[in-house]
Design brief:
By secondary structure, this protein is of the alpha+beta class. 19% of the residues lie in helices and 34% in strands. Strands 7, 8, 9, 11, 12, 13, 15 and 16 form an 8-stranded antiparallel β-sheet that branches. It has a 6-stranded mixed β-sheet with strand order 2-3-1-4-5-6, sandwiched between helices. A 6-stranded antiparallel β-barrel has the order 17-23-20-19-24-25.
Length: 446
């Protein structure tokens, strides 16, 4: 029992890293993930036995570790990854949530989903093929989503005789490209997922490489999701007013702190109204505290009786975001139905949902060469483009580059609630396109 308690305490003390994997079809991504899970002792015995049996039935002498991750029947039959799969594992040094994303271009939206909350992205490249168009797409998506760390895993080094010049040329090309997109940190690692070289254990075949293995890097890379260092933001989720005999005058505003720190006595603004007041109390887990920080769920009590409801945003009075009804953003369109100029949508930002109209789609991004296709008129599934949206009510958005939490939003179909597009407010890694004035449509005309 003592051993189990110690293990739980040690696990609780480790940090959490969210990371995503991406790679072209047949680059060996599923094998890499399977090798990572297998060699880090994160696979249950019955899972490994099932993989060994399935491999034998296919006539394979060694276990096909890709079968550990390709869970859908269509994925196993085609040998490709289709859906985003989340894997949870841990070592003594860190806990991990792995988003295994597809490599096919038609599943770009799935990679956006998986990488949207990641602090690190592992991009695989086949050493025989080098940097290809899909590699550049993955680097571009990671840059758009402001993923702070990117690992280039040059796989199948065993098929190029573990040649250092092959690895060096690929690493140089990818690093230059990713850096030009604004990716802040790129680490290149030569590996063989099939043989296990430099995945968990150092390779005996590449003594010319002196860097970390994939797992070593994952365990030691700085985790940069310290939300307390960001601009303080508190989206109101619920107004608590019991009006009971015990609490006749209690009025509190409950929600999860999206970023930053709030303190009792601090002057705050309530947006979008712009009214200012002071925090008189903070309730957390049934007791009063003087300070609270992201991502705690708390209830704030304010000095003045201001009209506040779900969807309002509380921020420091001297560090409040601008309020606007004109949203310029980069979106990834995830629905099968296209997004068109003039379309009526709902825009969901944190806890606030408002009516909106797509006023313009200035450009569509071609991920192959990062060129901008002007005035496409609409975006179809997997397209990434610039949009201008006019909302019925003002919103308090941050730029996505400043806050991935309060700078992101969803566009929703008002008819059936389907998610249409995932948006990132402000400029993309390229220069923001100029908004073009569109004619008003009947109905939702703002």
């Amino acid at each position: 029992m003592t051993t189990h308690l110690q293990s739980a305490e040690q696990l609780a003390a480790t940090t959490l890293l969210r990371f995503a994997t991406a790679g072209s079809v047949d680059d060996g991504k599923s094998t890499l993930v399977g090798r990572l899970l297998h060699d880090s002792k994160s696979v249950l015995t019955d899972q490994l036995e099932a993989v060994e049996l399935a491999s034998l039935n296919r006539g394979q002498a060694a276990p096909d570790l890709a079968l550990l991750t390709d869970g859908l029947r269509a994925e196993r039959e085609q040998g490709i990854t289709i859906d985003v799969a989340y894997r949870y594992f841990a070592t003594a040094r860190r806990r991990f949530i792995l988003a295994d994303t597809p490599g096919h271009v038609q599943y770009t939206r799935n990679m956006v989903t998986g990488a949207s909350t990641a602090e690190l992205a592992v991009v695989l490249v086949d050493a025989r093929n080098g940097v290809v168009e899909q590699t550049r797409r993955h680097a571009a998506v990671a840059a758009l989503l402001r993923v702070p760390h990117v690992v280039l895993a040059v796989n199948k080094m065993d098929l190029v005789d573990y040649a250092e010049p092959v690895f060096a040329a690929i690493a140089e090309e990818f690093t230059a490209y990713a850096a030009s997109l604004g990716v802040p940190e790129i680490t290149a690692i030569p590996i063989s997922a099939l043989a296990g070289d430099n995945v968990v254990e150092p390779s005996a075949h590449m003594d010319w490489y002196g860097g970390p293995t994939v797992l070593e890097h994952l365990e030691t890379v700085p985790v940069s999701h310290d939300l307390t260092a960001c601009h303080a933001r508190f989206p109101v989720q619920y107004v608590i007013r019991p009006q009971s005999a015990e609490h006749p005058d209690y009025r509190g505003y409950a929600g999860q702190i999206a970023a930053g720190v709030f303190r009792v006595g601090e002057a705050v603004s309530v947006l979008p109204s712009g009214r200012t007041t002071t925090i008189t109390g903070i309730d957390a887990l049934g007791r009063s505290v003087d300070i609270a920080w992201a991502p705690q769920s708390v209830t704030l009590r304010l000095a003045d009786d201001i009209d506040i409801s779900r969807g309002d945003l509380i921020a420091p009075a001297d560090d409040a975001p601008a309020v606007t009804r004109d949203v310029e953003a980069t979106v990834c369109h995830v629905a099968d139905e296209p997004l068109s100029v003039g379309q009526r949508v709902l825009l969901k930002h944190t806890t606030r949902t408002v009516k909106a109209i797509v006023k313009d789609i200035p450009s569509r991004l071609t991920l192959d060469d990062l060129s901008q296709h002007p005035a496409p008129g609409r975006l179809v599934a997997n397209d990434i483009g610039r949009v201008v949206v006019r909302t019925a009510e003002p919103l308090a958005l941050d730029a996505y580059e400043d806050s991935r939490r309060t700078g992101s939003f969803l566009l929703i179909d008002p008819a059936d609630g389907t998610t249409l597009s995932a948006g990132m407010a402000g400029a993309a890694f390229a220069a923001a396109a100029e908004a073009v004035t569109a004619t008003d449509d009947e109905g939702w005309d703002f």
